[in-house]
From TrEMBL:
Specifically methylates the adenine in position 1618 of 23S rRNA. One of its GO terms (biological process) is rRNA base methylation. Keywords: Cytoplasm, Methyltransferase, rRNA processing, S-adenosyl-L-methionine, Transferase. One of its GO terms (molecular function) is 23S rRNA (adenine(1618)-N(6))-methyltransferase activity. It catalyses: adenosine(1618) in 23S rRNA + S-adenosyl-L-methionine = N(6)-methyladenosine(1618) in 23S rRNA + S-adenosyl-L-homocysteine + H(+). Its EC number is 2.1.1.181. It comes from Paludibacterium purpuratum. This is Ribosomal RNA large subunit methyltransferase F. InterPro entries: METTL16/RlmF, rRNA_lsu_MeTfrase_F, SAM-dependent_MTases_sf. The lineage of its organism: Bacteria, Pseudomonadati, Pseudomonadota, Betaproteobacteria, Neisseriales. It is an enzyme of class 2 (transferase). It is found in: Cytoplasm. The keyword Transferase applies. Belongs to the methyltransferase superfamily. METTL16/RlmF family. The keyword Transferase applies.
């Protein structure tokens, strides 16, 4: 068994309780050398080791979601899967809130993943759980190429489409086609304003957990610069996203993004009002010691979202 997932995970999240590392090692034999006993004798891995996390993710994706091939180039963001799955389950609840509590499933639901990354985690899990179709965009050509290899290897070409964003500062422009529509967008934005801030934040996290040690990788989940930071940090990124969403208001029902700082939500609300968002929601999530949230906004009335207009 492995480290506990928090009891606060979404009720539909498959990653409740402890990882069955014996079963996961049977699926991913390369994981076995990274399994060791923790101080109380329970099997675990070192979550500060990027290679161990990558192999664990590959095993989890195979065991829980039927993904037979998944791999990343060195240094690319290797995200913790339980938290990524949580975002998707809460997004399903968001869509269900407009449909009398019934979660929409199947390929008629289209989702745009802004910054899909080389890992392609959201489309893989979202399609496996709900049958949704995804478009994933990214500014990094290698990320798009890697994600496409994963998609093709798992024969998901018809369900997951990858597009390169050709303009580094654009978010929806140049990616959305004029005649297409989405039920929602999702995004795990670059939270930091610089590489130094990203390193300092990660080091602070390990100190708070009492696990800092010499030679430890600072960014245990990896990540390229565009995955971790951008000028102005998450506030500047979200302002661009909100501003562009106004131009795409008729093409998408719900726009959403993860937000790392609660104060960012407070600062964004007046701007969302200025651009004409008719409803804004903040959805809280928690995984163990980590508190997270996403911001959701729409330009469509509740009647229109429920099919009444």
């Amino acid at each position: 068994m492995g480290d506990k997932s928090a009891a606060t995970l979404h009720p539909r999240n498959r990653h409740q309780g402890r990882y069955d590392l014996d079963a996961l090692c049977a699926l991913q034999p390369d994981l076995a050398p990274f399994v060791h006993p923790n101080p109380v004798g329970e099997a675990t891995i070192d979550f500060a080791d990027p290679q161990a996390v990558r192999l664990l993710n590959g095993a989890l994706l195979r065991q829980q979601y039927g993904i037979q091939f998944w791999d990343l180039p060195e240094g690319y963001l290797c995200p913790p899967i339980p938290g990524r799955a949580d975002y998707l389950h809460y997004l399903a609840d968001l869509l269900a809130s407009d449909r009398g509590g019934e979660i929409p499933r199947g390929g008629s639901v289209r989702v745009l993943d802004v910054g899909v990354g080389a890992n392609c985690i959201y489309p893989l899990i979202g399609h496996a759980e709900y049958g949704w179709r995804f478009v994933g965009s990214d500014i990094d050509p290698l990320a798009v190429q890697t994600a496409r290899v994963i998609v093709q290897a798992n024969r998901l070409d018809k369900q997951i489409e990858l597009r390169q964003q050709p303009v580094a500062q654009a978010i929806f422009h140049h990616v959305l086609h004029a005649d297409e529509h989405f039920d929602l967008t999702l995004c795990n934005p670059p939270f930091h304003s610089s590489a130094d801030e990203a390193r300092a934040g990660s080091a602070r996290k390990w100190r708070n957990l009492g696990r800092a040690r010499p030679g430890q990788p600072v960014l245990n989940f990896g990540g390229q610069s565009n995955e971790l930071w951008c000028p102005g940090g998450e506030m500047a990124f979200l302002r661009r996203m909100v501003d562009e969403s106004r131009d795409m208001a008729e093409q998408c029902v719900w726009f959403t993004s993860l937000v790392s700082r609660a104060e960012t939500i407070t600062a964004m609300r007046p701007f969302l009002s200025q651009v004409g968002a008719v409803e804004v929601r903040t959805v809280a999530m928690a995984q163990g010691q980590k508190q997270s949230r996403f911001l959701a906004w729409t330009f469509h009335s509740a009647e229109a979202r429920s099919g009444g207009a």
